[in-house]
Design brief:
173 residues; mainly alpha; 3 helices
Length: 173
């Protein structure tokens, strides 16, 4: 009867150790999947941010080009109108300078808006990285199986067997 108890104790310790090893492998597999998904998600968000930056840059370039075209048309119209009306000199130059200053302010505004947009998108990129790092840093480290604990349980079971039965499974000198 004692030998059955000893066998069950040893089997229980061995199966407990096997269970711990399976849990460790499962946690490692889960961590690997979460890590890979976090990196993929970060890369996808960065691609979207880069695409958005390109769109913003292209829109700003187009707006500045349109501002320049409109300013050139306005300057040309002002000069032609002034010439056909017989006006020339300082007043026409002042009007053209005013149009040039307006053009510069509009273009400067577009450039400033683009800069602000880029800053926001750069913040989004940093937040994406921080989300990824937080996810990865939050993973639970797999627990190492308790080999020593299993060995001590088996040793205790053998010692109990030797003590109770008077038998010597492993002779002690």
């Amino acid at each position: 009867m004692c030998s059955i108890s000893l066998g069950l104790s040893i089997a229980s310790s061995a199966f407990g150790l096997i269970g711990q090893m399976q849990q460790q492998r499962a946690q490692e597999k889960y961590n690997d999947a979460v890590y890979k998904n976090a990196v993929i998600a970060n890369n996808q968000r960065n691609a979207q941010i880069t695409s958005r930056q390109i769109q913003e840059r292209d829109a700003a370039t187009s707006k500045i080009m349109n501002n320049n075209i409109e300013a050139a048309k306005a300057k040309s119209t002002a000069q032609v109108s002034a010439s056909s009306g017989g006006v020339s000199g300082i007043s026409v130059d002042a009007l053209v300078n005013d149009l040039s200053m307006m053009q510069g302010r509009y273009n400067s505004s577009v450039t400033e808006n683009l800069r602000a947009s880029y800053m926001g998108l750069d913040d989004a990129r940093v937040n994406s990285y921080n989300d990824m790092a937080s996810t990865i840093n939050g993973l639970t480290a797999p627990k190492t199986p308790n080999y020593l604990g299993a060995a001590l349980q088996i040793g205790t079971a053998v010692n109990d067997y030797n003590t109770r039965s008077g038998g010597k499974l492993y002779p002690v000198s």
